[in-house]
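To close the chapter, one final illustration. This time we ask the reader to focus less on the individual chains and more on the assembly as a whole: which components sit near each other, and how the overall shape emerges from the parts.
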Amino acid sequence: MTARHDLAIAGVGQTPYRRRHEGSTQELVQSAVGLALADAGVAHRDIDIVIGGFAPDGLAGENSPDKRFLPSAGAVGKWSMRINTGGTTGIAAAYAAMDLLEAGHGDLALVVAVERMAQAKSVPAIFNSIFDPIYERDTGLSTVSMAALRASRMMKRWGYTVEQWAQIAGRNFDHAKLNPLAQIRSGYSADDVLKSRLLSWPIRQLDACPVSEGVCAMVIGRSSALGSAALAHVRGRATYTDTYNMGDRIGRPEGDLVELLTLKKASEGALLEAGIQSAMQADVIEIHAPFDSAEAMAYGPLGLCDYADGPALIDSGFGHRDTAGTVINPSGGPQAANPVGATALIRLAEAALQVRGKAEDRQVPDASLAIATGQGGSTQFSTCTVLSRE
Amino acid sequence: MSEINHSTSVAEHLLTIDGHWDFQYSYFAGKSASRFFEGLRNREILGSVCPQCERVLVPARGFCDACFVDTTEWRAVSEHGTLEAFTILTSSFPGLPEPPLVVGYVKLDGASTAVLNFVKGIDLTDFDEAGAQLLTQPRVRLQFKEECEGRITDFYFVIEGSE
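The assembled structure is written out below.
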């Protein structure tokens, strides 16, 4: 495998993440891209590659939105394409940009990831339309019930309780208070989570992510082409794909549905490439989990604990910025804002801001090593990226 | 209509334009699902067997996407199985009966994989109590509807011993 030590993230630009943005998609994209270019200290003319991520077209209500949003990201005259792999869209776009840079197609790439779901007036029905129309869609499967099916299996296998999951949510909401870009900044407590409306047992409203919009942009380049700006070096990354069929993963010997085999393989690959023994060495981990139970599902695959020890890890207070050790989701994570098409790139962007020392109020002191995960499809696409300051 | 004063640099109101995306579709089920649905009309649940990993895939597939080889044999599986994962839907959803509803993945005896469908025969007065009971991974029986049209909703699962 070729060494990837040459790539670094040099700039990040983000709109705030909100329930609804009044601006047009083009305006939001152009604004986030402008911020990313300014943060990186590079000009639009220096960009060689523009990769855009946009989630299911139905959410924005515009078929093939690439034709209009890519030019708004500065694609005119450049190598450009659009990527869509559901929840992993944003990070898949970043990986495509990195692949093209490594292949020698340029020195600087711009990645932009977009979510416009406030334009949809029937969000649950659109989310149902992402599922298999032949065997599964008639059962009303949604992103929430899909997560709830996993949550109940985790309760059975490892003894997780709804109170433990509410603790995770409470920590994410607590962190989000320090992030002005987050949508939910009111600091809901674990108790608030347990009292919120039941959506799909055992998942309640505040166990889940909100409906969010926003755009995240990023400048990635060959370190040699970047100046002395603060960089987040890409030390390792890997991605794996599983079958769509969730029923095929139930009781599967090589990895059960809730053992998240793809993230296990991705994190092992990324850590090995980065030369890191354990994810516990990271100062920051941004976990792409739109539900608190889904965050707990990532602990085993990331090697933060054995699968069966997840409940005890939560009880220990692990992951809070006021607790010693690795900080999980200092941004508040997807539970505080989850613009679907952008959210996986936001995880990488927030990890990059941390190791670049640019995370403002949410900065984890002296963060030099960060990990970001991505999760999409029917929890079948996983990515893991390791970033470092040096 | 055109109340925007273009002489000002910023619009007084940011507009929204209403639209629709109500397209109709007819999805091609393909060879294996068509055969599976034909089986439902004959009141049998058909799996397909992967010659390499020897899994019995239910509902039937024309190929195993793990081994990436064609399935080579049809095999009927039992109407009895185990509830492996579930959720209680508590919010109304377009096209579904009124909540609460239980959906779950059931591994039928003789199948290597689980199939998703509605689960009946559980008292849903108290969701936490129902949840605790369903967490025991109860045995279920597959129940066909009176009229089978060749669709996944031709059957549902009933908790064993609930009748």
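Helices of chain B lie at 30-41, 127-134. The radius of gyration of chain B is 23 Å. With these observations in hand, you are ready for the problems at the end of the chapter.
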